[in-house]
Design brief:
Elements lengths: L1 E7 L5 H15 L4 E7 L5 H4 L4 E4 L24 H18 L2
Length: about 100
């Protein structure tokens, strides 16, 4: 199982939309993915170390170096295939590289 951390400012709306979209699309593509949604302010090195991929809504400076792949997932929220497809394709590329 691939563990993904989605994050937005409040950890309520956008990150949960990203979570649902990633889980649905990656399942369609044949991947076992679990996405957790949190508030950006709650992320620390210990938390993020439990995940394989980080998908923030936008580029974020957490104050420490992130050791896992980061894929900005904001375009998923527009629900326009031309904008979201590249995000899903990048996720799939990273998942394949993880060999899990």
């Amino acid at each position: 199982m691939i563990k993904v951390l989605a994050a937005c400012g409040a950890g309520v709306n956008s990150s949960h939309q990203i979570k649902a979209a990633i889980e649905e699309e990656m399942q369609k593509r044949g991947y076992d993915v679990q996405v957790d949604a949190v508030m950006i302010k709650d992320i620390n090195e210990a938390l993020i170390s439990k995940y394989d991929i980080f998908t923030p809504i936008s580029k974020t400076d957490l104050g420490f170096e992130i050791q896992i792949p980061v894929i900005e997932a904001g375009p998923i929220l527009y629900r326009i295939p031309a904008m979201s497809a590249p995000v899903f394709d990048e996720l799939e590329k990273v998942i394949k590289q993880l060999n899990k």
